[in-house]
Amino acid sequence: MPATPSLDDLRRHAVARTLFTPTTLLTAIRRLGFVQADPIRAPARAQDLTLRHRVKGYQAGDLERRYPRLPVEEDCLVNYGFLPREHLSLMHPRVSSRPWDAATRRKAAEVLAFVQARGSVHPREVDQAFAHGRVTNYWGGTSNASTHLLDGMHYRGMLRVHRRDRGTRIYSVAAHAPADASAAAEAARAAALINLIVRKYAPLPAASLTYLARLLGYGAPHLAAPIRQALAQARQSLASVSIDGTLWYWPVDENPRSRRHQPDEQVRLLAPFDPIVWDRRRFELLWGWEYKFEAYTPAAKRRYGYYALPLLWRDQVIGWANIGAAQGVLTPEFGYASGKAPREVLFRNALDDELDRMTRFLAGPVPTDPSR
Q1: Where are the alpha helices (DSSP H) in the chain?
Q2: What distance in Å separates the CA atoms of residue 41 and residue 325, rounded to the nearest whole number?
Q3: Could you give the CA distance from residue 14 to residue 27 in angstroms, rounded to a whole number?
């Protein structure tokens, strides 16, 4: 009988399984299954900060620059981000839990015909053509009604993000094949979605697995019942262990005790939404301290800073950093869970190496000589 994994084993497994050898951009996105997006640049967007550790030679903005040529889509899973195109059929055609009224459906049909005729559109073009006005947004303020309608059409699978123009989504018409609505087909899609989140975030505490399954209601609200059934089945089929009263799950074909999970000596500054640190419940269980994302916390109440990047050394998240960058010069501010930085020369050298990598990453691609 195989030995039972310890919490140390699960910690090494959590780090090693997602910090694979840097590869191509498309291969990395497929291995991750989903890359969460965030618009804040501090010092770069979350998707870029996540991919830089997993894509060879990655530069800030590479995903946006290369997106139009990749079989990758901006869409929703447990939150908003980037997925391999082959995953869309698990969720589309998406049926929103908030049906539109007749007036909104009519406006959407008019906009869809407009986009179809033009091929791709900027939200400004839609606003100029239809003058939809303003609407109350999620936070209680007002926003452009045309942008709000385009977001809704994208969510419902009528439109796709064709590319971005200085961060703004440029839309084109989406084409999703009709879904098999049989109970067996829906069950298969739900099981595949559960597998997708387990592959991305394992090893998972039981409560986190339940939470992620519930968040799939964002990407596939019409599959709520099949997802609950798939979750119950997954609890029976996944590998698991109970440690100090917490039940953990991971894919049955993985071995948390594998000797291949030995940590390296690198220091890595992670995005707040990197799969290693995304689950705050798991974070505290594995590393023994609480980490919070405080960009939307009033400045006076912040403990870690506006956009604190968790600092991983070996298989330990030992602190965080807030990174300023102006004219190619980094101005990092560090904090440590223990109150002080490690004293080892190996750590100081590894931290310097990581800051050098961050500087090169933020510098962007080197312009090519057009004469060559």
Answers
A1: 7-16, 25-32, 46-51, 62-66, 102-118, 123-130, 145-155, 183-201, 206-219, 224-237, 280-287, 345-363
A2: 10
A3: 20
DSSP string, 249-267: EE-TT--TT-GGG---S-E
Q: Closest Cα to residue 337, out of 278, 274, 292, 298?
A: 292
pTM above 0.85, yes or no: yes
The pLDDT of 232-258, averaged and rounded, is 97
Instruction: Answer whether 61's CB lies under 8 Å from 43's CB.
Output: no
For the stretch 52-102, pLDDT in tens is 999 999 999 999 999 999 999 999 999 999 999 999 999 999 999 999 999
Alpha carbon 286 to chain centroid distance? Answer: 20
Question: Is 183 in contact with 223 (CB distance < 8 Å)?
Answer: no
pLDDT of 144: 78
Q: What SS3 state is found at 303? A: coil
pLDDT band of residue 369 (cuts 50, 70, 90) is very low
In the numeric block, the tokens 């098999």 are attached to 180
